[in-house]
């Protein structure tokens, strides 16, 4: 789902709000999430899941094309952990049995 599709959904769900207002709310929500992650805070959205930053250690790797050894520096990554509601929708027994 793209941001524009999410905005369309919100416009249908909340027709009493103007499109511009909903767009600002969406932008503000995403900006608050970005700021929280940049400050090493955890974001928890009940049912959906939680986002937090982790530090991936630096390591030595190999360039597969040349075989040359390279050093991959330490870096921060965003980790997502699914919430119960999302997990139950994705992994319900009925859905797995039909695949």
Q: Which word captures the global form?
A: elongated
How many structural domains? 2
**Number of H- or I-type helical stretches:** 4
**What is the oligomer described by this structure?**
single chain
The strand count comes to: 5
Gap between N and C termini: 23 Å
Radius of gyration: 20 Å
Describe the structure in your own words.
By secondary structure, the chain is an alpha+beta fold. It has two domains: 39 residues; 58 residues, Irregular (HU Protein, Chain A), CATH 4.10.520. Helices cover 44% and strands 27% of the residues. It contains four helices and five strands; from the N terminus they run ααβββββαα. The strands form two sheets. The protein has a three-stranded antiparallel β-sheet. The mean pLDDT is 92.
Descriptive key words:
99 residues; alpha+beta; HU Protein, Chain A; 3-stranded antiparallel sheet
Can you summarize this structure?
This protein has 99 residues and is α+β, with helices and mostly antiparallel strands.
SSE order and pairing:
Elements: H1 3-13, H2 19-38, E1 43-45, E2 49-56, E3 59-62, E4 69-72, E5 75-82, H3 84-90, H4 93-98
Antiparallel strand pairs: 1-2, 2-5, 3-4
């Amino acid at each position: 789902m793209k941001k524009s599709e999410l905005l369309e959904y919100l416009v249908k769900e909340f027709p009493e709000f103007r499109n511009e207002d909903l767009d600002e709310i969406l932008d503000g929500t995403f900006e608050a999430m970005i700021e929280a992650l940049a400050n090493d805070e955890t974001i928890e959205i009940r049912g959906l899941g939680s986002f937090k930053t982790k530090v991936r250690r630096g390591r030595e790797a190999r360039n597969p094309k040349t075989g040359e050894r390279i050093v991959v520096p330490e870096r921060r990554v965003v980790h997502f952990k699914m919430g119960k509601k999302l997990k139950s929708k994705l992994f319900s027994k009925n859905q797995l049995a039909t695949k």
